[in-house]
Design a protein that fits this description.
Length: 318
């Protein structure tokens, strides 16, 4: 056990680099977006979502490059379920998440369709091939273009964004760029540390890479989403909080798995398909919560957290 102390320290160092790197990236890029007067929901679903999802991206791409493909797909699925159940659930405990009809009908629905597409492509051939990766990436580019067009329309319509997203201060452009560059560098090194240390821990304790990806890596790489969304919810910026979670889940499937499988085909095992089905079911539960009262209240948030605890126990014993 003593021999693993350096490995655990490397894992912790990796998570610290991932979280602080994502924090720097988000602060720098969100500041630039504020200067361009982009609405907070768009910032949450694009820049902040991509920034807080960079840890998952770094871990999955490093796993794909080193041949640890099962870690890549399980990390994404575990992170998405954690984002949906724990991040949204905890945010709802601080302040009810009021959900606009557009967010429910367009954004949440699209995230569910992305999960369905992942399940379908993974089921046929039990592998995400390079062509599947390019399909994900093309859809992601179209999604980004759509969000940019929505932001331009909102700005043209004179939508007021000065009072939104106060947690992201406007800083000088040179400092924003420095934050972005340093953030990306920290994320790259952190992802490499996490993959190497997590793989060694899995081998030592006889754990599967799928279990490590769904638990240790998923929770560790999802901490930026949790911190970002909770801060936004405490400041009553529910659009930013919910947009961050939905955007991160879309980004994880379309971009992270897209680029990972484009680099190297990813084998899909039965447990992965089960997790995809559970992700879809949990997404539908959240969608129903938002449909009935157009908000996720504290009781529903507590229910979501309890569902995740039950899921965590299930994956540990299966």
């Amino acid at each position: 056990m003593a021999a693993l102390i350096p490995t655990f320290l490397l894992l912790i160092a990796g998570f610290v680099l991932l979280i602080k790197g994502a924090d720097f990236f988000v602060e720098g890029s969100a500041s630039i977006a504020r200067k361009l007067r982009v609405p907070s929901l768009i910032v949450g679903m694009t820049i902040v979502a991509m920034g807080t999802s960079l840890p998952e991206c770094s871990v999955s791409i490093n796993a794909s490059l080193t041949g640890e493909n099962s870690l890549a797909v399980s990390n994404v699925l575990g992170s998405n379920i954690f984002n949906l159940m724990v991040v949204c659930g905890v945010c709802a405990l601080f302040a009810p998440l009021i959900v606009k009809a557009q967010t429910r009908n367009r954004d949440i629905t699209f995230s569910i369709l992305c999960a369905v597409l992942l399940g379908v492509l993974g089921f046929f051939g039990m592998e995400l091939e390079r062509m599947d990766g390019w399909i994900f990436l093309v859809i992601f580019i179209l999604f980004l273009l759509y969000m940019v067009m929505s932001a331009l329309k909102a700005r043209a319509a004179g939508q007021d964004v000065e009072d939104e997203g106060e947690e992201y201060a406007v800083i000088p452009v040179w400092k924003s760029i420095l934050f972005i560059v340093c953030g990306v560098a920290a994320i790259a090194f952190g992802g490499d540390f996490v993959v190497k240390s997590a793989s060694k821990i899995a081998t030592t304790f006889g754990m599967s890479q799928t279990l490590v990806g769904l638990t240790i890596c998923a929770i560790g790489t999802s901490l930026p989403e949790l911190v970002t969304s909770v801060v936004a919810a405490r400041k009553k910026q529910v659009d930013m909080a919910l947009g961050n979670v939905i955007g991160s889940n879309i980004f994880n499937i379309l971009f992270v798995l897209g680029i990972s499988s484009a680099i190297s085909p990813i084998a899909v095992i039965t447990e992965n398909l089960v997790d995809v089905v559970l992700l879809i079911l949990m997404s539908l539960i959240v969608w129903i919560f938002t449909w009935t009262k157009e908000r996720v209240n504290r009781a529903e948030g507590a229910c979501m957290v309890l569902l995740y605890i039950g899921y965590w126990v299930y994956i540990c014993v299966r």
